[in-house]
Amino acid sequence: MARREFDPEARCPLDDVRVVDLSRLVAGNILTHVLADLGAEVIKVEKPGRGDDLRNWRTRGVPLWWKVYARNKKSLCLDLRRPEARDLLLRLAGTASILVENYRPGTLERIGLGPDVLLERNPRLVIVRVSGYGQTGPYRDRPGFGSLIEAMSGFAAMNGFADRPPVLPAFAMADAFAGLYGATAALTALRVAEAEGGRGQVIDLSLFEPILAMLGPKAAEYRLTGETTPRLGSRCTIQAPRDVYATRDGKYVALSTGTQAMAERLFAAIGRPELVDDPRFRTNADRLAHRDEVEAIVAGFIGRLSQAEALELFELAEVTVGPVCDEADLAEHPYVIGREAVVEVSDPEIGAIPMHNIVPRLSQTPGMLRRPAPELGEHNAEILQALGCDAREIEALREAGVLG
Q1: Which of 162, 173, 201, 273 has the most crowded Cβ, counting Cβ within 10 A?
Q2: Domain with 347 in it
Q3: pTM of the prediction?
């Protein structure tokens, strides 16, 4: 595994962008994580004594989610219940390009930090408001954790097997989609704000709508057919064969025949080229109508091979098959190692920690790993001094409980 050292002096494409991050947990942290990896100065504003709730997601006592998604960020502890803290936040927002928050709609307004106040202080500020269901509509006041969104969006209903309950994803999928959509939207709005005569604006980002968009034309399919998407396990409604297949050695491979040519190559590779002329399997529509039969033929063939044998055979035949990998497989996978998709970085708590590399890869202005995830309030003095506070003021704020 490639080793990377943090380089706080590295130059990156978003070096002149300051982001104030008031969010907690996953969606906002992924949004600002993308920006931080590309060089933005992301200042996490955290609650004294507690910090971002992501710090409490621990594996054997180690906050791995925090270490991964808070890398390249700074931490400032402010008790926003205090007027002095709110004044400091307004001063900070006046120096920022982007502000991200994921409070329940209306919360910022109640504490005197609504978009109107923020934009009055900084007319070019881009404000990203992340919530479960958006700032408008009948559900705006409901708490919206990702699991609820994944259920309500239609994803869970179509995920899993027909004879078992719907299945939620095993990771924060709705939050991840929202974070990525939010990063794109924030940079789009920033481009507008930085143009001549440009102004800031408010981005209303729900968790619900990004996952709905990622599910594809489901609304159109329902309108056209009147049918809901069945739970098919690893199969799908648009192509066959397509599934996960057990191999002789207890492992699995995944196979997808997204084109007619791929299906024909598959039939040839399993020694059944005549199947392409079988009326049941001639076209994709035919194969979907006889899904169980074609899947049984493919599964029977693959089940006689080891995973390695299946991968070698289908690679030579140029058939799109790949291994089903777990974390142990990926730790030693030649692709992950050769691509440096995962890198090992120094960690002050456990010595070293593997995590994903910078995504995506820019040829001329790549992102960099510049600092590990911050300790709670680690950058209080640095940030406040940059706002014009001297050491005496900072100590007074600390003694008054404004800072953590």
Answers
A1: 173
A2: 2-214+339-399
A3: 0.93
